[in-house]
Write a structure and sequence with these properties.
Length: 141
């Protein structure tokens, strides 16, 4: 069964995403990120520039081929079905990602925005109603 973790009280979604993906990349994890396409495009740019002397190597699922695809561990995708692995899925979207149950782990990121918190509660209920054990992380301010 998929391990599910919620990261609550995130103040800056983009900065948090960059730090989370940098940590995952450094650990060697295979990670797929889903969310709204416009937000993913912003994340794509941010991963190149959020730190002055480093970046997080990543690629868009379905667009990378050859050596780039073989070496990539962080993938951006509109839907989980586009991802080339089933290891870790990070959801920055409003809805339950379709096919999340195929992944070993799912990380849900919830900001301090009230609308985002309501969407996060709906996703929590969805997983809970289906018997998933959920780990809750409170992100320090």
């Amino acid at each position: 069964m998929t391990e599910i973790a919620f990261h609550f009280n995130v103040r800056d979604r983009m900065a948090y995403a960059c730090r989370l993906l940098r940590k995952a990349w450094r650990s060697g994890a295979q990670v797929g990120v889903v969310g709204h396409e416009a937000w993913l495009a912003e994340l794509d740019r941010a991963l190149w520039s959020f730190e002055p002397v480093e970046f997080v190597p990543h690629a868009w699922a379905g667009r990378a081929a050859g050596p780039v695809a073989a070496l990539t561990r962080v993938w951006l995708a509109r839907t989980p079905g586009e991802l080339p692995h089933h290891a870790v899925l990070v959801n920055f979207g409003d809805d339950v990602p379709p096919g999340f149950e195929r992944f070993e782990r799912l990380i849900e990121v919830v900001t301090t925005d009230e609308g985002d918190r309501l969407a996060g509660r709906r996703r929590w209920k969805h997983y809970s109603d289906r018997g998933y054990a959920i780990v809750r992380y409170e992100v320090p301010a």
